């Protein structure tokens, strides 16, 4: 891809989002959130002139991968300011008040002017890019100013432009990184073939993140009251496609407590869920008046931020996204507690799902009947459940440590000194 084509793509992408913003709430937030970004960033840097570390994340999932490093920097280098940027509203809107950063913002659309203005105003001493999203002008200008940029939790596939005949511009972006920390050896091999050798196979920082969450687990009294002594299935980050696979089993098993945390909690979706599942109560209602849900076996979580703790109460977990195009959500949040994970058939882009299945802690299903059969097997066969539970816990524990590689590198290269 030539730079001209890249710039044209950026222009058309921005126009498309501005058009979509007229009727699409997510696109509207994308557009509105980037207005007057220059003035806001200038005000922040006038007030906070400490050495600045900038971490960029595409969305919420990438933030969770970067979070162990961000919080380590906060704890060990308090003389540094932290700027956290997002490309997607689904990341920014949830973490815009994140206390671990001094400034949270949208990343402006990639253009030579925007990138130069952003970088010169923020004046970062270190930039950390999480997993993916490679923006040419930002990376090119950072490289030209000799500002160190590292990639963490990177994962590459042969189908990406970096490894195609037309990918010269994308390969240039890779040269802008001082070092790339990768999730797997296959990524390192691909990069080596195009001349990128400053890499370390460190693993996925999400294993460290979910382990830290589990170690700091705090009980949720309202959840404990709801589940009582009943077996619990926690269904996390579900989409309508997932919920349609779950409803029959939930509606015919009043002896089981289902906790469903949908990916999107807008009112229309919550009402659709209440129609689909026969005996429900919303968490907000249950919290205020437990008597309102005495006949319910399905608790609908109508807030953001609880899911990672909910899995602690589960005997089994169902993770959404595997029946649609949006992608499988985080299975590690459940597996860290030794909870077997079940999900839909579309998971080929998620190596952790493949590996968890291979090790016996995960299961993929293609139909509602397969799902019900798997639920029944694990709920009735104690040995099968115990084996899958051990496999899930061991799977996560054995893959911890990616953050330590990155922390050691930052200290050895003295990238966080004043």
Automatic annotation (TrEMBL):
3-deoxy-D-manno-octulosonic-acid transferase N-terminal domain boundaries: 36-208
Entry keyword Cell wall biogenesis/degradation: no
Substrates-to-products reaction catalysed: lipid IVA (E. coli) + CMP-3-deoxy-beta-D-manno-octulosonate = alpha-Kdo-(2->6)-lipid IVA (E. coli) + CMP + H(+)
Subcellular location(s) of the protein: Cell membrane
EC number(s) recorded for this UniProt protein: 2.4.99.12
Function: Involved in lipopolysaccharide (LPS) biosynthesis. Catalyzes the transfer of 3-deoxy-D-manno-octulosonate (Kdo) residue(s) from CMP-Kdo to lipid IV(A), the tetraacyldisaccharide-1,4'-bisphosphate precursor of lipid A.
PANTHER family with a match to the protein in the record: 3-DEOXY-D-MANNO-OCTULOSONIC ACID TRANSFERASE, MITOCHONDRIAL-RELATED (PTHR42755:SF1), 3-DEOXY-MANNO-OCTULOSONATE CYTIDYLYLTRANSFERASE (PTHR42755)
Main localization (coarse): membrane
GO molecular function: transferase activity
Top EC group: transferase
Pfam families the record matches: Glycos_transf_N
Pathway involvement of the protein, from the record: Bacterial outer membrane biogenesis; LPS core biosynthesis
Family: Belongs to the glycosyltransferase group 1 family.
Protein name, entry field: 3-deoxy-D-manno-octulosonic acid transferase
Record's keyword annotation contains Cell membrane: yes
Coiled coil stretches, renumbered: none
Keywords from the UniProt entry: Cell membrane, Lipopolysaccharide biosynthesis, Membrane, Transferase
Superkingdom as given in the UniProt entry: Bacteria
């Amino acid at each position: 891809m030539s730079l001209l084509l890249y710039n044209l793509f950026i222009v058309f992408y921005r126009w498309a989002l501005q058009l979509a913003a007229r009727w699409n709430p997510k696109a509207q937030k994308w557009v509105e959130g980037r207005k007057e970004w220059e003035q806001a960033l200038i005000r922040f840097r006038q007030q906070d002139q400490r050495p600045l570390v900038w971490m960029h994340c595409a969305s919420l999932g990438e933030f969770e991968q970067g979070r162990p490093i961000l919080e380590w920097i906060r704890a060990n280098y308090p003389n540094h300011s932290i700027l956290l940027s997002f490309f997607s509203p689904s990341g920014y809107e949830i973490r815009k008040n994140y206390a671990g950063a001094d400034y949270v913002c949208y990343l402006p659309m990639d253009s030579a002017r925007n990138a130069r203005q952003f970088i010169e105003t923020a004046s970062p001493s270190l930039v950390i890019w999480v997993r993916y999203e490679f923006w040419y002008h930002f990376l090119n200008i950072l490289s030209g100013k000799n500002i160190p940029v590292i990639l963490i939790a990177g994962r590459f596939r042969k189908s990406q432009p970096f490894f195609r005949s037309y990918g010269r511009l994308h390969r240039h972006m890779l040269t802008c990184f001082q070092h790339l920390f990768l999730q797997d050896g296959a990524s390192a091999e691909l990069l080596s073939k195009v001349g990128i050798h400053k890499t370390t196979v460190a693993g996925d920082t999400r294993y460290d993140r979910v382990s830290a969450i589990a170690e700091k687990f705090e009980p949720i009294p309202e959840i404990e009251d709801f589940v009582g002594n009943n077996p619990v299935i926690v269904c996390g980050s579900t989409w309508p496609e997932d919920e349609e696979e779950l409803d029959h089993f939930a509606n015919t098993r009043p002896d089981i407590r289902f906790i469903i945390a949908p990916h999107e909690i807008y009112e229309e979706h919550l009402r659709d869920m209440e129609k689909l599942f026969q005996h429900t109560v919303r968490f907000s209602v249950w919290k205020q008046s437990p008597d309102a849900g005495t006949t319910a076996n399905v608790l609908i979580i109508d807030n953001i931020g609880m899911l990672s703790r909910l899995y602690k109460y589960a005997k089994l977990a169902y993770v959404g996204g595997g029946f649609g195009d949006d992608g499988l959500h985080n299975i590690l949040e459940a597996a860290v507690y030794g909870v077997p994970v079940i999900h839909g058939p579309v998971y080929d882009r998620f190596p952790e799902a493949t590996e968890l299945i291979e090790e016996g802690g995960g299961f993929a299903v293609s139909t509602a009947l397969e799902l019900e059969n798997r639920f029944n097997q694990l709920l009735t066969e104690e040995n099968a459940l115990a084996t899958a539970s051990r496999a899930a816990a061991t799977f996560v524990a054995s893959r911890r440590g990616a953050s330590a590689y990155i922390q050691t590198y930052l200290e050895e290269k003295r990238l966080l000194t004043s």
